[in-house]
Design brief:
The chain is of the alpha+beta class. The chain has five domains: 165 residues, Sandwich (Jelly Rolls), CATH 2.60.120; 394 residues, TIM Barrel (Alpha-Beta Barrel), CATH 3.20.20; 79 residues, Immunoglobulin-like (Sandwich), CATH 2.60.40; 129 residues, Jelly Rolls (Sandwich); 146 residues, Endoglucanase-like (Immunoglobulin-like). Helix content is 15%, strand content 35%. It has an eight-stranded parallel beta barrel, surrounded by five helices. One of its GO terms (biological process) is pectin catabolic process. Keywords: Glycosidase, Hydrolase. Its EC number is 3.2.1.89.
Amino acid sequence: MIHKTFKRITGVACALILGTVTPISHVGVIKPHAADSSYLANGSFEKSIWEDNAWSLSCDWNYVSESRQMQDDYLTIPDGQYMQKFWINQNARSTQYVCLTQKVNYLPAGTYLLSGKTMGDPKIETNFYTQDAKGETVATGGWNKWSKFTMEFTLTEARSNYEIGICLAGGASTTVAVDQVSLVKIQEAVPVTSDINVTKVTGMNSDFIKGVDISSYISEIDSGVIFKGWNGEKLSQQGFFDLLKEAGVNYARIRVWNNPYNANGAGYGGGNNDVKKAVTLGKLATNAGMKVLIDFHYSDFWADPGKQSAPKAWRNYSVSQKANAITDWTTETLRTLINSGVNVAMVQVGNETNNGMCGETAIDNKCRLYSAGCKAVRSVAKSLNKNIWIAIHYTNPETSGRYTSYAAYLKQYNVDYDVFATSYYPFWHGTLNNLTNVLSSVANTYHKKVMVAEVSYAYTLEDGDGHENTVTKKDVSSLSYPATVQGQANVVRDVMQAVADVGTAGLGVFYWEPAWIPVGVYQKNASNAASVLASNKQKWQTYGSGWASSYAGEYESDAASWYGGSSWDNQAMFDFTGKPLASLNVFRLAGSGAVAPKLVDSIEDELTVTGELGKNITLPQSIRVAYNNGTAEYKTVAWNSQELQSAIAKGLGNYIIHGTASANGTAYSIICNLSIIRPNLLANPGFESGSSNWSISGNGVSVQKEASNVRNGEACLKFWDDKNMTFQATQTVRGLTSGYYEFSGYLQGGDAGNNSRFVLFADSNGQHYEEASKVSSWQEWENPCVKRIYVGKDGTVTVGVSVLAVANAWGSFDDFYLCKVGDVAVSAPSPSPIASKTPAVSPTPVVSNAPSPSPAPIASKAPAISPSPAVSKAPSVSGAAPKVTVTSNLQGNTVLQNYSVTGNGKGSIDLSKIKIRFHYTKNDSKKLLVACDSAGAQLSKAPWYQDLTSCVSGSCASDYVEIGCNKELDLANGTAQMTIRIYQEDWSGFSGFAAGKTEVYYDGELVEVI
């Protein structure tokens, strides 16, 4: 099992795969049209291919039939009256390929663009190819849902009888269609020489937005940050904006908060972006020749999908009052900016408003507030005779149907806006093809302009200021872009292309915070690390140059415990010392393209290999080296054989094996993290073979191949549902030798709240074992382990995972592991089993099922309630009586208790006669509620285990909670366990809560005090 920590980059070219085909005998030879028209004939199929000799057709006629179809009420033809259609019949046993080819008599040297429209029902794949190369494949699905497919190629010399082709691929019972095919020569500038490679963006008009968000710049300058020019010279404030303009930036985006300060004037951080700062930034941008986008958050601090708090002054306003306040404040602020000389050309009414705006979450209320802001912008623009675009901003374009829904309700409520804007971060928001498709759908259906309001990417994985980064290796490991300067430039270029591919409705792209660099450069192992970090913290607090100051905690709770610096410094377009990166020039070079000297851009310099004890262990013979020109090759690694043989001889454990590889004349150090483990006794432990060998039941769970959620390989057991989830996945292993075993696995995810349960369990020899776990965030893998599982003479164990999770919780399981750790003892063990396989869940709603670009607070460990030691103060009981142990923990607004009840060995114990009273004190009179999350009894004879969850309940008096079970059950030789949750009726936190004694009553008599 090999895991490479640096994701391999995949190229777009691949071999053209064709099924069995029978070619038509005629092949057309076409003369070129005029220089500005298509070199292809019959590209819109207005003539039958049987009457016109332009196209040659190849397919397997046993399964394919051909026809042309006219436009009708249910079909829109992209060009002319006809489209070319094929039908793959229901008997096709494999994917069928239909190939249309055409030869062009003469093509002069130059760069060419092939383009066309395709659709398929239910779904197909389409690509262009030439006699030299293959273009990217486009997938489409649905009747009358046309997708554009293109291919660009360059001929360095003139070519005769040059063949181009179209490959259409679909399965049985599929309709395949193509139309509006053309080949044109692109009359563009020759690529310039640069420090980065940039593939020219096609279809980009002269006023395409190439913008940056520079909202934190003034706070950076106030903190003492120095920005430099290309030669290392110090830049003035105006010089900095002039540099951006020279690099091709034509638009500046500036966020505006209402009042980002506390009552004493201390700023909340994140740039302290009030109106005054917006004026300063806006004038600098205007003087540099840029247009300005004003991003109104309608909040006093960050607004995003996870939080949309109203300004402090508006918190108690009704919706009508908020609408009036938005109109007045927008009007006043815009007039201030424009009268100060700021060239405001666009206004955002709200920021990432998926789940609310200004404290309102209902759709009708949100639209009412949108309209209030739009009305103000229209009024100011008209009164000052200015043209100002109005944008509505959302995020999470990767979610199917989301943007169609948003655009529909904006139309339903008559929101008067011009631009549908989205955030797009490649490590969170899906593919670029999907981005183009969802933006095209909004543009074509609702006739709106579209743009990307935020994008960014890491140029390094290092931390520059002592405050952890938002984007780390785990975020970029599944992408084809390395965390390098070239990788950063490639992301920006490709996002620009994705927007340009929408057509004339695609306005452009804004890069988010390219100048948010460290205040002071922090190096973790440097001798001055502590003093640099202390200085940074002081400046973050004083000047607001970090993402939040401690003062923000009064406004947003996440800032109360996790305030600090820039989590974005490794995604800036300036290095940690303030010097511009070559990637900044991507805005200028996108129109012409650029070539750079060939250099190593990234290398797989760290590998992870897992080997099983007693089996042959080998390390990869080569590693992949990627170059800045998009090419890659594999280079041989020379491993330290002595280190490897020593590790194998030592056996179980983790080892580092060193190696070297050479590329482009330079030797690179390579390391391999080798883990030698006991043999895994599970079949298909990582779901690479689908659900084989596993029994999976319940809702919200399935095996999926999804790179962003796997730990190793290509597949995982993924879960998500918009309803509460209850599911299990189990595997039974037989033929084992008696002894002790361990079962473990990995899980990750989020939005599970406090009321979800994730449990790994094992059932063997009449015993039930389990280990509870949790999910914290994306790609933060937990590794629970169930230990000391005893397998008896039958050699059988069933292992698995049992989950109850709240709606919209999400995540995945991967890499389960079962191994033997010890031989059988003289007598079988008697472990204390856990009560329940499937604990109950009382869900609480969650806002979002995807990570937010904004930093998340680090959870603090809940303090434990320390009850009095177990001291028996009760009357002596000579007969049978229960023995109770208890653990309690205060976790936020909930007390979680675990009770274990056994007999004292003196006779039968009826569980239904036991009452447990937990005494407490607290400072308020709010009503307490009691819930049993799980309960069960392990018995010494069949049925061995009984689930008691529904039988246990509790009631609350003024100073104690009483817990009991209505099930008559003899615990003379058994153990009952109960997990109890105590919380206040309104789910608020406890005030002055303290645990007191716990009393145990049996048949009405006090028998124990804990």
